[in-house]
Amino acid sequence: MATRAAAPALARALAGIVGDGHVTTVGADHVADITEHPPGRADVVVHPGTTDEVRAVLALARQRGLPVTPVVAGYNVAGIAIPRAGGIVLDLKRLDRIVALDHDTMTVVVEPGVTFAQLKAHLDAEAPELAYTYPFAPPFTSVMANALLDGLNNLSLPHGAMGQWITGVEAVLADGTVVRTGSGAVVDGWFGRAPLPDLTGLFVSTQGTTGVVTRAGLQLVPAAPHRQRWFAFAYDLEAAYAAMRALARTGSYDDVGCMSWPSAKLLFGATRGLVRSDDEPLAFLFIDITGASGDELAARERLARDLLRRAGIESVFEVADLLRLMPHLAKLAELPTTLDFLLDFPGGGLAWVGSYGPGGAWVEGAAAGMATLERHGFPPFLVARPMAGGHYYVLRFVACFDKGDDREVERVRACMGELADLVLDHGYVPYKASADAAERILARAHPGFAELLTRVRDALDPERRMNPGRWPGT
Ligand SMILES: Cc1cc2nc3c(=O)[nH]c(=O)nc-3n(C[C@H](O)[C@H](O)[C@H](O)COP(=O)(O)OP(=O)(O)OC[C@H]3O[C@@H](n4cnc5c(N)ncnc54)[C@H](O)[C@@H]3O)c2cc1C
Predict the structure, then answer these.
(1) Counting atoms of ligand 1 from 1, which one is nearest the CA of 152?
(2) What is the CATH architecture assignment of 98-222?
(3) Architecture of 4-91 per CATH?
(4) 3-state secondary structure of 318
């Protein structure tokens, strides 16, 4: 590790690679995010502009034995872009090119700094017949980071977690070697990962520990000409699950999301002392329905109404109608979007445990997680959706908190630790695992999983300089 005194010399050497103005030591000694995870310290923050510069920075880091922590926006909500062993923060925002857009294979190749807002604008202008899939993450966050982290977006019901959308990558390894995976490793075009040995997974959910991805191929889907979004109210978890399950299993719907009542209260401006009155729904579902023709859309709408009724859900509203009455809901209606009620919560803290697991344990897991939040003094804020055609579901438990209140931060930490164990107890696995959640995952994993991960890391980063502190113990 460099010493603080060596930082100016390191910054000069890095400036020789990326140019003056793209290296700074200012702010490097206090790198924080919006979560309960403590701030970290680096020696220098560097902003490369090309793959070649990333390669040269990593070669220099290797020579000097320096840790490297990649980051784009730093909004992962798990503390996993906070440097834990000093060294270099590799800020990838300047790598923001959309390198290729292939209308024929329906793929796009992006650099890490490409944001959701940027990709949406590009597709709207250059390929209105195609679409990507968007999270509730802020529009300024990285499309690639979300995919590398196996995130969940608004087409994850038909197409699964975001790692599945990656058709191949270019990455720079810890020693500066540039590698490629997927079809783009062999031919000119990242149409898919098959039929080669699937090495792309080495970079998915590994949180920057296996290398810095400088390009990723991502699949697009045809943009549906006819679309409708509904909100529906569920008064208990059983009805919410029955509706999600029934809609998912038809294979006919783009998205079925579920949020519990505190999200609605926050959306409408409440912050503290949230209380649900007896006549208010427990959760609202948002249901995206599309069709290649008006008739297809209408048929899917009829089927959805029938399935919702059978699940005991009668209150169904077209978003367009609701928006006229409640303009606040626009934040949830068009993606990408800024959920300012989460980002600007007084005190600025946002934490969650999100996980993927079996539908059979969803109701019990959701109830137990909501009760855990309440026991720790937080409203029972749940986010969920069926994924990959209903093969698995999301359980995400959210806490907004005051980062300036040490006791509240401690409460959040204890609560998130308990929630990570709780979801694992219900057969769910945390995604975007914080260091703490990763430890809990590994403690329960088959020893052969930890062994394989250790060997992969030994092969790609024997000195453990890449985003140190992630997947601890491997
Ligand atoms: C209000 C809010 C709502 C959100 N909603 C969702 C949601 O609905 N679905 C969802 O999936 N996520 C959601 N997120 C999480 C997150 O914002 C997204 O996944 C986002 O795209 C991450 O991008 P980032 O630029 O913040 O990544 P960062 O935090 O900068 O990086 C994420 C991780 O990837 C590593 N990394 C970054 N770039 C590279 C690279 N090129 N090579 C190797 N490693 C790299 C970093 O070291 C870090 O470990 C939400 C976040 C917020 C604040």
Answers:
(1) 11
(2) 2-Layer Sandwich (3.30)
(3) 2-Layer Sandwich (3.30)
(4) strand
Q: What is the mean pLDDT of the chain?
A: 96
Question: What are the φ and ψ backbone dihedral angles of 161, each rounded to 5 degrees?
Answer: -60, 160
Residues 6+ apart with CB under 8 A from 267: 328, 329, 331, 332, 341
Return the residue whose CA atom lies nearest to atom 15 of ligand 1. Answer: 76
Which residues, other chains included, contact 463 with Cβ-Cβ below 8 Å and sequence gap of 6+? 65, 174
Cα–Cα distance measured from residue 359 to residue 154, given in angstroms and rounded to the nearest whole number = 18
Chosen CATH of 226-433 out of 3.40.50.720, 3.60.130.10, 3.40.462.10, 2.60.120.200:
3.40.462.10
Q: What lines the ligand 1 site, CB under 6 Å?
A: 69-77, 80-81, 92, 112, 135-138, 141-142, 144-146, 148-149, 151-152, 207-208, 212-213, 339, 342-343, 467
pLDDT in tens, 304-348: 999 999 999 999 999 999 899 888 888 888 899 999 999 999 999
**How much is the pTM?**
0.97
CA distance 325 to 317: 11
Cβ neighbors of 433 (< 8 A, separation 6 or more) are 78, 80, 420, 441, 471
